[in-house]
Amino acid sequence: MALATLTLLAAGVVAGAVGSVRIAPADVARIVSNYMGAGFTATWPATHEAILWNVRLPRVVMGALVGAGLSVAGAAYQGLFRNPLADPSVIGASAGASLGAAAAIAFFDGVVHLPGAWAPGPVPLFAFVGGMAAVLLVFRLATAGRQTSTVSLLLAGMVVGTIASSLVSLIMYLTDSQARDAIVFWLMGGLSGANWRKVVWLLPYLAAGLGILLWHGRELNAFLLGEEAALSMGVDVERLKRWVLGAGSLLTAASVAFCGIISFVGLIVPHLVRLLVGPDHRWLLPVSAVTGALVLVVADTVARSLPWISELPVGLVMSLLGGPVFLVILRRQLLPRT
Amino acid sequence: MLRIESLTVGYGGAPVLRGLDLTVRPGEFVVVVGPNGSGKSTLVRALTRALSPAAGRILLDGRDLGRMRPREVARQLAVVAQETAVGFEFTVEEIVALGRTPHLRPLRGDTPRDREAVAEAMRQTGTVPLAGRLITALSGGEQQRVMVARALAQEPRLLVLDEPTAHLDIAYQVELLDLVRRLNRTQGLTVLAILHDLNLAALYADRVVMLKEGRCWADGAPAEVLTEANILAVYGSRVRVVRHPVTGAPQVMLLTRGTPDPLGAAGVGSD
Q1: B106:A233 CB<8 A
Q2: What is the share, in percent, of chain A residues with pLDDT greater than 90?
Q3: Residues of B numbered 41-100 whose beta carbons fall under 8 angstroms of chain A's beta carbons: which are they?
Q4: What HEC string does chain A produce?
Q5: ipTM summary value
Q6: What range defines the domain where residue B270 resides?
Q7: B152 close to A (CB below 8 A)
Q8: What's the pTM?
Q9: How many domains does chain B have?
C-alpha cells in the first residue's frame, strides 16, 4: 500500500515533467510544493509553471481519480457478482453514458448550457445522467419485490447496454460527419480536455463512491461465500447490493462523463492487485484505488509522449499495453511454478 | 430456543412449507428428515431469511426473526450449508475469520476478542494445521470442517446444518457429525441438522422430526419416528428397521423390488 502510494507520487512527478516542454522533475516537485504553501524561490521560467499547473497537473490528477474510481468499481463488482469478468460497465453505466454523450454532441451541443463559469458542458452532464439512468433501469428490471437477482442484473445490464450502443450507432448514422467524428473521439476515451474545473466536479462523486465501497469491504468478503452464506453471517445482502451498485455506478458514470470510455483499467487492475494482496476486499479495494490511479497516469503519460504521434487516446494505450501485460501474467499463473 | 409456529413459506405462489410447527429446546440435537420436496431446505432458507414467511412466524428466544436485524440473528444462529463454493483464493484462516462479520464494525480491524474467537473455533474443529492453506486446495471433507469453524467463529447458540454430509464419504460423514455432537455435548451448542441419511439421523439425533409435504409428520426419539410404518407413509418405501448391533439405534435396511419380506408387505413397527 505504502509502496504503491509512493510509486504513484513519483509517477505523478514524472508525468508532470514529461511532454513537449520538458520540466526538471525537481522543479515539478518545488512548484507543486509552493502551491501547498512551501516557499521555494522560483528558479524556473514562468511558462513552465503555467504549463505544469494549468495543463499537466489537472490532467494527472484527473487520470489518477478516474483510474482509482474505475478500478475500485471493477473490484467491487467482481466481488458482488462473484465473477472475474465483471467490470465497471457490466450494468450499463458506460453504455448509458455513451448514449447521453452522443445525444448531447449530436442534438444539444451549444443549445444547453448551465449558467456560470464552473458549470459542466452539456456532454458530461448528459453522459452522467445517461449512465445513471441506464443503471436505474437495469436495477428496476432485475428487482422483484425486495430482492434483486445478480444473474438478472448481468443479463439486463448486457441487454440495456446493447440497446444503448445501438442507439449510439443510430445517432452516428443519422447525424452529420462533424458530430460523428466528435462522438467517435469521445468514445475512444481520453484525458486531453482535463482542467481544474472538471477535477472539482469529479472529486465529490469519486470521494463518495470510494468511501461507500471501502466501508462495505468486509461485507463484500462475506459475499464471496455466496448470497445465502452472507445472509447467515448477518449481511443485509439486498442493502449491500444497492449500496455497492449505487456507489460503483456513481464512480463509473462520473469518470466516463468527463473522460469518455476508458476500458480495461477496471477489469485488469483488480486482478493484478488480487495476485499481490489476495482477495480480501479490505486490502483489495484501497490498493486497487492507488494502483488504478498509477496505471492510468502512466498510460496517459505514454499516450501523450510518443515521439511520432501527437497524442493517442489513453483508452487505446490502456488496451494496447495493458492487454499483453495481463496475458503474460495470466499465462504465468497457469504454468506450474518451478 | 427456536420456535416455529404454523410457518408457511415457498417460492412464488406455491408454498413448500405448509403450516409447519417445530420447537428446538436449548442444548438439543434435533435432526429433520423427509423426502425430496418435503421442505427441509426451504426451512433452512426461511431461517436464514432468504425466504420470508407467507404466514406464521419464527421465534428465536421469543423474538420474531422477521423483526431482528440480520447482524443480531447471525450472532445467535449460524448456518453450515451443503456445499460452499469459494471462487476466490482465501486461506482457511481468512475464511474462518469471516465468521466474525456480524460482530464487527466497518473499517475497524479485528480486536483481540475476535482473534481469540477465530483461534478457538479452529482449535475445536481441528483446523489449526490447515490455517495457511488455500480453501480451494482442500478436500470436500476438510472444507466442511472449515465451514463449521467459520460458523463457530460467529459464536452462535444455535447451529443449523443443511445436509452437511451430502457430498462426503463415510469417514468424513462420521467425522463431521462426531465433531458437531461433541460441540453439542461439551459446549451446550444447540443443533438443528437437516439430514438425508436416515441411519445417520438415528445415530446422532436426540430427537427426529419427519416432514411430509411441508408439515410435521412425526416428532420424537429416533426409535419412535424412524419406523417402517412412518417410512412407508412418508417416503412410500418398504424397508426393514433393525437395531444397531452396537448402539441399539434404529437402522433402516432398504428392500429392493422382489426381495422377499418375511414380515409381509405392510410395514409393521420394528419393536
Answers
A1: no
A2: 43
A3: 45, 48-50, 69-75, 77-79, 81, 84-91, 94-95, 98-99
A4: CHHHHHHHHHHHHHHHHCCCCCCCHHHHHHHHHHHCCCCCCCCCCHHHHHHHHHHHHHHHHHHHHHHHHHHHHHHHHHHHCCCCCCCCCCCCHHHHHHHHHHHHHHHHCCCCCCCCCCCCCHHHHHHHHHHHHHHHHHHHHCEECCEECHHHHHHHHHHHHHHHHHHHHHHHHHCCHHHHHHHHHHHHCCCCCCCHHHHHHHHHHHHHHHHHHHHCHHHHHHHCCCHHHHHHCCCCHHHHHHHHHHHHHHHHHHHHHHHCCCCCHHHHHHHHHHHHHCCCHHHHHHHHHHHHHHHHHHHHHHHHHCCCCCCCCHHHHHHHHHHHHHHHHHHHHHCCCC
A5: 0.85
A6: 227-271
A7: no
A8: 0.87
A9: 2
